Amino acid sequence: MKHLFRHRHISAWHLAAVAALTLSALAGTAAAQTVLRGLPDHINPSARYIIYVHGRIIEHEGPKAVSERFGPYEFAEITEGLSARGHVVIAELRDPGGLDYVGTIVGHVQALQDAGVPEESITVVGFSKGGYMTLRAARQLNEPDVNYAILAGCIGEAVSGEDLSADGLEGRVLSMADTADDLGFPCSPLFERNPQLDSPLSMVFHEGSGHGLFYAADPLWMRPLLDWIDAGSP
Questions:
Q1: Is 50 exceeded by the pLDDT of residue 198?
Q2: Cut 0.85: pTM above it
Q3: Are 210 and 181 within 8 A, CB to CB?
Q4: What CA–CA distance (Å, rounded) separates 222 from 110?
Q5: How many CB atoms lie within 10 A of CB 90?
Q6: Does residue 97 contact residue 104 with C-beta atoms inside 8 Å?
Q7: DSSP string over the chain
Q8: Which residue from 11, 57, 61, 219 has the highest number of Cβ atoms inside 10 Å of its Cβ?
C-alpha cells in the first residue's frame, strides 16, 4: 500500500503552483470548460467526467457557503478548477437530508456507463459528507475501474471499523486528508481492511488547516488530485 506525504512550503514553489493552476484554468476556459448542475442531456461517451459531491454545509447555505470555522467554501472555483484539464464536471446542489444522495451518485455513474463512457473516464470526488457518501456509492457500484477520490470523508467510525458500510468496495481509490482534521481522516485503515482494492493511495497533508484545506481551490491538493485522475484515464 502506498502512502504519500506532502508538506506545504510557503515558497516560490507554492507561488509557482498557484500561477500554474491559474494558467491551466485559463487554458481550460479557452478549451471550453464545462461545469454542469446535473447530467447532460446528451452524454458524450468520449468525454471524461468528474462527479463532484460537495460537503454538508452547502446543503444548508448554498454554493456561497461560509463556515465560521473554515471560511468561504470556494465551490465555483473548485468545480471550475476540476474542469480545467478538459473534464466535464457534474456538480449538483443537493437538498438537506440524510444519505439518500448515495443513490443519486450510483445512478449518475450508471447513466454514464449506459451511454458508453468507459469506467476509467468516470471519477467521483467527494468532500466531507460527500466523501462518505462517495465511499458508500463505491460499495454499491462495485465497479473496479471507476475512480473515487475521498477528501476528508472517512469518518471516525469508518476508520475504526465500527461502520463497515463501505467495506467490500471496489474501484481505484484515493484518500486525501490533513493531519489536523478532526472531522475527516485518512482512509488508510479502511484500505487495509479491504485487500481487494488495487493499490489504493492515501495522501496526507501537514498543513494545519484541517477540514478547511478542501474549502479552498488550492493547487496544493487540486493539482495532485488531477494528476491522479489523469493517470487513470484512457
A1: yes
A2: yes
A3: yes
A4: 26
A5: 22
A6: no
A7: -EEEEE----SHHHHHHHHHHHHHHHHHHHT--EEESS--SS--TTS-EEEEE--THHHHH-TT-EETTTEE--HHHHHHHHTTTSPEEE---PPS-SSTHHHHHHHHHHHHHHTT--GGGEEEEEETHHHHHHHHHHHHH--TTSEEEEES-B-HHHHHTS--TTTT--SEEEEEEETT-SSSB-SHHHHHH-TTSSS-EEEEE--S-GGGGGGS--HHHHHHHHHHHHHH--
A8: 219
Question: Position of cell 500561477?
Answer: 19
Would you say 169 and 201 are in contact if contact means Cβ atoms under 8 Å apart? no
What is the spatial distance between Cα 174 and Cα 187, in angstroms, rounded to a whole number? 9
d(CA 64, CA 213): 16
Q: Distance between CA 194 and CA 38 in Å, rounded? A: 31
Angle 12-16-20 from CA coordinates, rounded to 5°: 175
pLDDT greater at residue 18 or residue 101: 101
- With a CB cutoff of 8 Å and minimum separation 6, the contacts of 191 are 1, 173, 175, 197, 200, 202
Question: Is the model more confident about 24 or about 155?
Answer: 155
What residue has cell string 454542469? 36
CA distances from 149 to 127, 175, 176 (A): 8, 6, 8
Question: How far apart (Å, rounded) are the C-alpha atoms in residues 52 and 7?
Answer: 25
Angle at 77 between CA 73 and CA 82, to 5 degrees: 115
